[in-house]
Amino acid sequence: MKKIFNLLFLALLIILVNAGIASAELTKNFYAYQVKDVNIRQLSAEIKNTIDSYKGSDKFLPLENVNNAYIYSNENCTYFVRLYPANKDTNIFVVSNEKYNVENNEMTELLTYYGYKYDKVEDKAAMKEYKFDFFTLARKQELGNFYISPDLVKPLKTGMAKLNNHMAKDNKKTSVFPYTPDTEPINLTLVDSTNYYDDNARVSMVQNEYRLKEKENKYVHAHEYLVTNKNNSTAKVTATSERLAGLKDVTTESFVDLDRLDLLDTVATFPPVLVLTAGTSALCSVPNWIRLAKITKESKRYTNALPENYELKPQGQMRVLVLKYKENPKPITFNFKFADGRTYDVTF
Fold it and tell me: For residue range 279-316, what is the model confidence (pLDDT) as tens digits?
C-alpha cells in the first residue's frame, strides 16, 4: 500500500511540474566548441584578461566560486559559458536561453581574434557531463533567464547523503583496500594533465585526470599520480588527502542517480517526456543493480588506500590512482622521508 501511495504521489508531482513547464520557456540550446592545441590554463587566462578589459554594455560576468564560468548578456540573448579541459585542447560549453548564431557570436569573434582553430565538440560523453554540471549548478546558483526543471527527488538524495555521513561517522575517509602498485594501462578519456617538479625534494609529479565510462563520472573523475624520485637515495612515501571519494561514496551517489527522475535529456522536448525511474525501480530493480555493479567494478581500481611508508627507490617511479569529486577536488600531500634524514612535504 505504501509503495502504491508513493507512486501516486510521484505521478501528482509530475502533473504539477508539467503544468509549470507549460508556461515556461525551456532551456534547450546546448553547444560546445573545441579549441585546438591550446590548454585550458592558457585559454582561460587570455579570455579572462579580455573580459576584464572590456568596457562595453554587453559583457561576460564571471560566476562566483565556479572556475572558468560566465554569464553573457545583451539586449537579444543571454547565455552561460564554461571552459573545460580536453587534454591538449579546451572545450567551451555554451547554454543559451534562446537560439543564437553558433557560427558568428561574441565567443567565436574572440577565438578568431586570438587566431585559434576550433570545431564542434563531438564527444557525447563530455556533452552529457557538461549538461549535468549545468543543471546542478543552475539549481544551486539560481541562474537568471534559464528554466530549470525542479529536482523532484531532492529529499531522497538528501536522505541518502545523511545516511552516508552517519555510516562514516568516526571513521576515516579511506578505503578498506590497501595500496598496491598498479601497472595496467588506463583505458579512459584523458581530460587534463599537469606537471610539477619540487626543487628541494627533487621529485617530479604528473597528475592525469580521466573521465570514467559509467555514470559515476557525473560526480567524480579518476586521477593518476606518477611520482618519480630523482634522488640517489630511497624515500619512504606516505600520502594523505583531506577528502577523496571512496567506493561507498561513489556507489551511494550513483544509486541515488539511478533511482531518480533524470530530466537532462528530456527537458529539451515539449511537453517534456519524463522517464519514470524513481518509484518503478523499486519493482524493476535488476537493471539498476546491473549498472551499479558495473560502476563498482570500474571505480574499485581507483579507491585503494593511499600509500604509507612505501619505499620509492632512487630514480624509481610510483603510481597512485584515486577518485576526486569534480566540484571540489582536494590535492594530495606526499611526505618523503629519505635515508639520509631529509624530510619533505609536497602538495599537488
Answer: 333 334 445 656 677 888 899 999 999 999 999 999 99
CB 43 within 8 A of CB 292: no
Which residues fall within 8 angstroms of residue 335, CB to CB, at 6 or more apart? 237, 238, 239, 240, 343, 344, 345
Nearest Cα residue to 56 out of 33, 75, 81, 80: 75
Q: How many CB atoms within 10 Å of residue 115? A: 6
Residue 129: pLDDT band with limits 50, 70, 90? very high
pTM: 0.78
pLDDT of residue 146: 67
**Beta strands 89-96; 118-120: pairing state:** unpaired
* SS3 of the chain: CHHHHHHHHHHHHHHHHHHHHHCCCCCCEEEEEEECCCCHHHHHHHHHHHHHHCCCCCEEEECCCCCCEEEEECCCCEEEEEEEEECCEEEEEEEECCCCCCCCCHHHHHHHHHCCCEEECCCHHHHHHHHHHHHHHHHHHCCCCCCCCCCCCHHHHHHHHHHHHHHCCCCCCCCCCCCCCCCCCCCCEEEEEEEEEECCCCEEEEEEEEECCCHHHHCEEEEEEEEEECCCCCEEEEEEECCCCCHHHHHHHHHHHHCCCCCCCCCCCCCCCCCCCCCHHHCCCHHHHHHHHHHHHHHHCCCCCCCCCEEECCCCEEEEEEEEECCCCCCEEEEEEECCCCEEEEEC
Higher pLDDT, 316 or 3: 316
Higher-confidence position of 167 and 119: 119
Cα–Cα nearest to 259, from 155, 141, 163, 136: 155
Side chain identity at 313, as an amino acid letter? Answer: K
